[in-house]
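Trying the structure run again after the queue cleared.
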Amino acid sequence: MENHNNQTENLNPHYNEDSIKVLEGLEAVRKRPAMYIGDIGERGLHHLIQEVVDNSIDEALAGYCTNIIVTLHKDGSCSVYDDGRGIPVGPHPVKKISTLEVVMCTLHAGGKFDKSSYKVSGGLHGVGVSCVNALSSEMKVVVYREGKSYQQKYEMGKPVTKVEEIGNTRKTGTLIRFSPDETIFKTVQFKFSKVTERLRELAFLNPAVTINLHDEAENKSESFHYEGGLVDFINYIDVSSNKHTKPISIFGTAANDAGGEVQVEICLQYNDGFSENVISYVNNINTIEGGTHVTGFRTALTRTLNTYASDKMNGSKVKVQLTGEDFKEGLSAIISIKVPEPQFEGQTKTKLGNGEVEGMVRSIVAEKLDDYLEQNPNEAKRIIEKAAMAAEARLRARQARDMVRRKNALENTTLPGKLADCSSSNPLETEIYIVEGDSAGGSAKQGRDRKFQAILPLKGKILNVEKARMHKILENEEIRTIIQALGTGFAEDFDIAKLRYGKIILMADADVDGAHIKTLLLTLIYNYMRDLIVRGNLFIAMPPLYKVKKSKKEVYCYNEEEREKAILEFQSGDPKAKILTTEDYENMNTDDNESENEENAVISEAQEINMRGISISRFKGLGEMNPEQLWETTMNPDTRTLMQVSIGEAAESARIFQMLMGDKVEPRREFIEANAKYVKNLDT
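Done. Tokens:
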């Protein structure tokens, strides 16, 4: 749930020396956890595992770890074991207590700050395992080092035992087991699928490491080890595409001014699609906003391919001037660099700012790619010819864009006629609902708060941009309407500073057609307005599936679990009550000749008797709700539930978009079959 109550809290008018509080140890983390892990929801919860695993990956980068085991335990805790060197346990030279305790209980303490221990580290962007300790109700660390085993326990970031020797061992490494504090997190239930995404990504980026994941509660296991590294990675995200070229691998090193070594590893290939997927990493951190390493790659790619087209193909197949945009079409690339001291910037602190890296990447890519093109003339010819086709399409798209602009369809000064705008023009408080269908759009317009909520109804499904070039996209009326309403421009013209609404909320029916519409909209935004996701502006409305009512009391339920809970609460104390079976639910709303009651639900007489006066409404769509119901359940900031859209693990996002929207049927069928348990009433 979210709350839009912007009233000022009662503040102490006396600001003096007593107002200045010093938070000792890890108290600051517990006081403001979102400052350290992003949020206290599901994303922040899973970030705890990432922080612990990052320590193990740092050991692997240093050459001391080859196996990592992550276990989700039945009691809700998580353990991470690696066979690295093990955290030192002897007295710290400054703190005069065990070094293990210093690492686990002190922010910004660890070997990654010592260049002699770790040449590069992925953990410098975070606050490390001490933050995990602070946000755990319990934690236990076992260290295997120099033939001995050591153990220390903690509660809420504070040690409750001393570091004690517990036996002899032949193993080396560290085992960390922690239980997230349920007084801090909204949920403490780890999801196997979310953990899988990040571990798979790390295994692709670190081919020498084997990562095993086991979920005790669901009795599921996965093992991740990819000897092919980035080649396996790019084949994974491009699984649904028809390949235009083979993967092209680039590797090189360069010395920076401080005497450190920068490692550059890139894999790219072209497919027959029209969109681009470039995923970049620095020290295993996904740099979703790019940075100097991506700029260096793009510059080298454009210059090298243009030079080859001019010198080797004599312009025979290239009738127009090629630009960087032309070489993006159908490009998939993974950029992974290792930098001794990365400097991050940008809105999410995931944009590389090291200026010297751009020239290093540009030089390495230019040299290695030129060698590849010389040795593989047939592949080179296919790339250039594809870019030439893209250039011709770009010119047609420019003509389409100019025509659209002349008609004011992309200008910020003119708003689409179907848009019901809000009275406020402050993006910090405004939001726009992009709604499926005129019926739902009409209810939303009547039920909204006109001060800050705008409504844009869409007619049918928009174009699948994964299968269309730019000129076709710009000819689509619904897409033009969306661009016009948001005010940001599109593709290379996109400017988030011109965004008219702080929240963009996609609202569609909770059925297969609604899911398809949301997927089409997400594909559009992911490919051509991605900053809306990166900056946290995009949301999905969560309309309820059921309404459970008894007498004058009613509860809206967003899933089957909430429905069952509501029924049990209504039935408490009624010994004759009977819960409907799954078959009963499936038979609801199936009679074509039935007449709907005011709740838009139909309960047979037999079911009504079985439920002892409890009626269940199953909403088929948003259009079935009257304006008051839509406001109460889906649009009221005080009671609604919104799901914020994030990039997540970049590789998985790219792969799923290609799979759902691409040409290949088999991967899409396998995906649907694997996720069929999450889909109700699937109409094929």
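Residues 438 and 457 are 6 Å apart (CA to CA). Worth checking whether this holds up in the mutant runs.
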